[in-house]
Design a protein that fits this description.
73% helix
Length: 192
């Protein structure tokens, strides 16, 4: 009954116990081989899922920020915020104003204590928290860096005036701090 199997396995004794023992040894080798293949596949799958999950958190965070900006356009940039708060009138020319003039508008805003100033400061806080979350969760890419820098540029003059007071909440030397300071080191054409 086992003669064909015994010949294929080159067994000298051909009984059920010998065949089972030989096949059991092969199955152990096969199981080990499958395990060696399965470990890198599982590692890749876990790594891919982690990366996808982090990217999803970053995208969801950015979507929430964009929704807030769309619902509150009066706070979505320093120029609109300054008008809404009453720091400038509609005649103020952001293109002609110097960096110092724009930054000076925002000095002392924390003590202004109006509903509009508080809303702007909370909007700015939401932006910075969103940027921090994106930095922490998004894959390191130029695309996400540009997105964050662009959003920070909308608030250039208020960040220029306030960042040294705010940085303690986000960590001096953190990735967000480096991004904000990088934007503030620029001389953009429109200081708002």
């Amino acid at each position: 009954m086992f003669e064909g199997i015994c010949d294929a396995l080159s067994l000298t004794t051909c009984d059920a116990a010998t065949v089972a023992q030989t096949l059991g040894g092969f199955s152990g080798v096969l199981a080990a081989a499958f395990a060696l293949i399965a470990i890198p596949v599982a590692w890749w799958q876990i790594s891919s899922n982690t990366k996808l999950s982090r990217e999803t958190v970053a995208m969801e965070t950015y979507r929430e920020y964009l929704k807030l900006a769309f619902e509150n356009p009066e706070y979505s940039g320093a120029a609109m915020g300054a008008r809404t708060i009453g720091l400038v009138d509609n005649e103020f020319d952001w293109d002609e104003a110097s960096r110092e003039e724009c930054t000076a508008l925002w000095s002392g805003i924390e003590g202004r204590l109006t509903e509009q100033s508080e809303k702007y400061l909370w909007f700015l806080s939401f932006l910075l928290s969103s940027c921090e979350k994106i930095v922490d969760h998004a894959p390191k890419s130029d695309g996400w860096t540009r997105v964050i820098e662009d959003q920070l540029r909308y608030h250039y003059s208020s960040l220029d005036a306030l960042w040294d007071k705010l940085v303690g909440h986000y960590g001096s030397g953190s990735q967000l701090d480096k991004l904000v300071r990088g934007v503030l080191a620029e001389e953009p054409g429109k200081l708002s």
